[in-house]
């Protein structure tokens, strides 16, 4: 990993944990332990830095998606892994980070939304179709609708009034939001696969 990538990773973690607007440039420099000149060599403005952070983060997430797809030939396991990664990602955001992106950095927020739509179209929906064809899920299940419902539920996890970070860990939320709902759509064969995956994931 290059120095630039390391700084972008660290800056994004700071933004995700503390929000963007709440952190001044001086505080950011202190937390990153770099000079203003070094930061300007990476991004001319704070807005540029946020955009670079999001773009780099999406490249990392895309690599994780492709690695997941390459690591398993089982469509149901791949589907569950991708949703588990998404739940983990969402739970790493503080509410202020999400609100700041929506309010002050619409271009970066739009990039995140485009990524989620591409994830749905190119990976999640085709995996569900494979699961149905293989007999793991009910034959009359509409894949596009199911994926949209899951992604809508993920957005709900960003609401701190409904899901305070201190009250629920991501494993609990993954079981409630993904596993229990998907189990209701599964055939007995699929339910056995879901149980096996859940046991392995919870023990990790």
UniProtKB/TrEMBL annotation:
It holds the Pfam family TetR_N. The keyword Transmembrane helix does not apply. The lineage of its organism: Bacteria, Pseudomonadati, Bacteroidota, Cytophagia, Cytophagales. Keywords: DNA-binding, Repressor, Transcription, Transcription regulation. This is TetR/AcrR family transcriptional regulator. Residues 7-52 form the HTH tetR-type domain.
